[in-house]
Specification:
Elements: H1 15-21, H2 58-82, H3 86-118, E1 125-126, E2 129-130
Antiparallel strand pairs: 1-2
Helix pairs in contact: 1-3, 2-3
């Protein structure tokens, strides 16, 4: 049985393509997201319960700062080289910033969920007992 380039030995999709396309980490179907950035409750194909994973909004602030720095650098470069009117800046940078933040948030949340599934990450325990 030959493995495809996007599957590992367990039949699961590779991490990066799964994160980019919103694939279920178990079966590889495009069922990870219910809408733009909200996870589905479970996979419609294999029934994997996505609500058991705790991704949270950890990536949101981090990505907003990174995207903001990149957009600011680009806006300053455009201003220094072309001196466009302010309305051009608004029409260019506001939609680009929103698209970059939402797109990167979607991919990063998917990546965290997929890695949590792959590594079977759970809450910490001490000596086999659950931590309070």
């Amino acid at each position: 049985m030959a493995l495809t380039k996007t599957e590992n030995e367990k039949g699961q999709p590779e991490v990066l393509p799964a994160a980019l396309f919103g694939l279920c980490p178990n079966c590889g179907q495009k069922t990870l997201f219910a809408n733009l950035t909200k996870f589905s409750d479970k996979c419609r194909a294999c029934g994997l319960d996505f609500s058991q994973y705790n991704v949270g909004d950890g990536p949101a602030a981090f990505l907003t700062l990174i995207v903001g720095a990149i957009i600011l650098g680009l806006a300053l470069a455009v201003e220094a080289n072309f001196h466009p009117p302010i309305w051009i800046h608004i029409m260019l940078w506001v939609p680009l910033t929103v698209a970059a933040v939402v797109g990167s948030l979607r991919v990063s949340k998917a990546l965290l969920l997929i890695l949590e599934h792959r590594n079977q990450a759970r809450e910490g325990t001490i000596d086999g007992s659950d931590c309070p």
